[in-house]
Design a protein that fits this description.
The protein is of the alpha+beta class. It is built from four helices and seven strands. It has a three-stranded antiparallel β-sheet with strand order 1-2-3, with helices on one face. Strands 4-5 form a two-stranded antiparallel ribbon. Helix 1 runs antiparallel to helix 3. It starts with a helix and ends in a 14-residue tail after the last helix. The structure holds zinc ion. Zinc ion binds next to strand 6.
């Protein structure tokens, strides 16, 4: 059965592939809004070498696209992957049971609580909050919902 960490890794892999695919044709993954006039009514988005990568309708849309360029998306994914690694399954530990009592957990987070004494059930709230972004994915499980 897929763990929440595996599920998140799969989603981040998908997002990274999309970001890399979006940068094909651009000379850079670092995009910005081009304020030079365009032939169309659109607002251009260019990479940091002034190569055109997209045209948007409206300045706010252009800023959103440029702000979510492949460089930003890949940096965001790298940060989230680090959080997933930090909050990994540390295995059995005494700790806080889901019913509020104290006892032996089968899976405790390596970062939350004190593993080996006051563990927090894994997947912890941090991972479940990361997972909630993908709650409409067919592989998302309701037991992960924060
Ligand atoms: Zn945790």
């Amino acid at each position: 059965m897929t763990t929440l960490a595996e599920f998140l890794t799969a989603r981040y892999n998908e997002q990274a592939r999309k970001a890399m695919a979006a940068s094909i044709g651009a000379t850079s993954k670092d995009w910005r809004v081009d304020h030079e006039p365009w032939e169309t009514n659109g607002i251009g988005i260019v990479d940091d070498r002034d190569n055109s990568v997209a045209v948007a309708i409206g300045d706010h849309v252009a800023k959103h696209i440029a702000g979510n360029d492949p460089k930003a998306v890949l940096a965001d994914i790298a940060s989230k992957r680090a959080v997933v690694t930090l909050h990994s399954d540390g295995g059995e530990s005494p700790g806080y049971l889901p019913d509020g009592g104290y006892g032996m957990l089968q899976h405790a987070c390596t970062d939350c609580g004190t593993h080996g004494e006051w563990g927090i059930p894994w997947p912890c709230l941090t991972l479940r909050l990361l997972g909630a972004v993908f709650d409409e994915h067919p592989d998302y499980r309701e037991e992960w919902r924060p």
